[in-house]
Amino acid sequence: MKRSLGLVTLLILSFFLPDPGAAEETYTFDLAEIEKKPYDFGGYVEMKPSISQIRRDSSLYRLKYYNRDLGSSLEEANLKLQLEGSYEKGIARLTFKTNTDYKLSRLGDDERTDLYEGFLSLSPSSSWKIDAGKKTFKWGKGYAWNPVAFIDRPKDPDDPEVGMEGIFALSADYTKSFAGPLKTVSFTPVVQPVYDHINTEFGKKDYLNLAGKLYLLLYDTDIDLMVLTGGSRTTRFGADFSRNMGTNWEVHGEIAYVKDVQSRLVDPAGNVSAVEFDATSFLLGMRYLTARDTTTILEYYRNGTGFFGPEMEGFFGFVDNGYRTYQATGNDAALQRAALLSEGNYGRANPMRDYLYLRISQKEPFDILYFTPALTTIVNLDDRSFQISPEAAYTGITNLDLRLKASFIDGPANSEFGEKPFDFKLELRIGYYF
Q1: Rounded to whole angstroms, how far apart are CA atoms 371 and 293?
Q2: Residue 222: which domain range?
Q3: Pairing between strand 294-302 and 385-397?
Q4: Which of 16, 158, 259, 415 has a 20 to 30 Å separation from 246 between CA atoms?
Q5: What is the mean predicted confidence (pLDDT) over 23-49?
Q6: Integer Cα distance of 397 and 385 in angstroms
Q7: Is the separation of the CB atoms in 384 and 309 below 8 Å?
């Protein structure tokens, strides 16, 4: 497996590296090259080989791999291809984006192709725009989390800038500008259907849900007010803001109120109880850029829908008891029940209450051109577990991005990061834009 990953990496690098002879070509100027074309097409291809160190005694390792022997490490390679483009004619614009992921792994190869975006936009005037199809809305001002992103898929806090799959919806945007403290007002109504094969992961089927966002640029502060209602999910309200406090300092925040949150709790004996409550989640953050091009992003996230420490410990205890039963009798019924619970709230990226996110990156330290090292950490403030990830990125070759990233995952027993199936991961990302 390691030899195969190395060969694939070498082939991709040889394909992307520029031809030395190309630099000798004579440059010519063609006016047609700068004329606006009605169509646009491009894409991104990526290879990401990785190696993860096994944490064999963790609850989530026992849950996922109880009937496998992974050895001391797991080597995998993820291949990604994204194609995107648009065609514009008159007031209409058609946009699409596809994503194909292919995983090479000892656990089994897997391929998945999805339409990330595919929608038609109509702009009958400078104030109006209407979109119909599948698109990403990107509500919220947070970098790692967005509690007000009611109609978007949740971000991966470990890699927040990765593109996400959109949803099928009908939406409109009306924008009007003013003179005075209130400079801009924009209103975005959204109709989101949930039926068979349409947005099925967004709750109960056979409902037509309504959402809306009101944007205000007031006293140089960006403000959004959001709402979602309908039968697929419970009603929720949200607001966010972003303001530049200085040339290099921005602060932002979000707050969301969700009615009638339903959650299932399990104790170590496997007793499941359903609870219902109203939840408030919020985020406060800042981004600061120094004169030396050091960027700091700091965010605190309060997940009002998350689990408290004893509730999470109950789930881990249930998994451990089920694993011991499996070892003694070969009966995996309890582990299968735990796996179903992990597909719900227990399986979210960050399922507990209080989190801190910190990312520090330095552009071209010591005058090393196109080189950016960074350090990112996510801390669970409830159980003191954490993940810390140093990385180094290089962009000195046209359209080629190289990133080497390591992740150290640690915490006490029965903590979120302490019970992850791996305690160390190293990955190399090779991405090419065309």
Answers
A1: 12
A2: 2-433
A3: unpaired
A4: 158
A5: 75
A6: 38
A7: no
Tokens 């119909």 locate to 132
Average the pLDDT over 151-159 and give the result.
94
Return the structure tokens found at 246: 């200085």
pLDDT at 370: 97
Residue 189 and residue 179 in contact, taking contact as beta carbons nearer than 8 Å? no
d(CA 434, CA 432): 7
Identify the CA nearest to 275 among candidates 284, 287, 265, 289.
265
Distances (CA, A) of 154 to 212, 215, 292, 326, 352: 18, 21, 33, 34, 15
Q: In DSSP terms, which residues pair with 33 in a beta bridge?
A: none
Q: Is 399 left (phi over 0), alpha (psi -120 to 50) or beta?
A: left
DSSP β-ladder status, 128-135 and 294-302: unpaired
pTM of structure: 0.89
Measured CA to CA, the distance from residue 339 to residue 341 in angstroms comes to: 5
**H/E element, 2:** helix 2-16
Q: What token pair was written down for 12?
A: 């991709």
Q: Which of 378, 312, 429 is nearest to 155 (CA)?
A: 378
In DSSP notation, 290-332 reads -TT-EEEEEEEEE-TTSB-HHHHHHHHHHHHHHHHHHHHH---
Structural domains in the chain (count): 1
DSSP 20: G
Residues 360-389 have pLDDT tens digits of: 999 999 999 999 999 999 999 999 999 999
Strand partners, 207: 194
Query: Which helix (H) or strand (E) covers residue 7, if one does?
Result: helix 2-16
Q: Give the side-chain half-sphere CA count within 13 A for 361.
A: 13
The set of residues, in sequence order, having a beta carbon less than 8 Å from that of 105 and lying 6+ positions away, is 74, 75, 76, 77
Q: Has residue 301 got a pLDDT over 50?
A: yes
Residue 374 sits in a domain whose CATH number is 2.40.160.10
Residue pair 403/428 in contact by the 8 Å Cβ criterion: yes
Residue 75: pLDDT band with limits 50, 70, 90:
very high
Strands 110-122 and 354-362: unpaired
Q: Are 336 and 325 in contact (CB under 8 A)?
A: no
Strand partners, 256: 238, 281
Residue 354: beta bridge partners? 302
Condensed to tens digits (0 to 9), the pLDDT of residues 220-273 reads 999 999 999 999 999 999 999 999 999 999 999 999 999 999 999 999 999 999
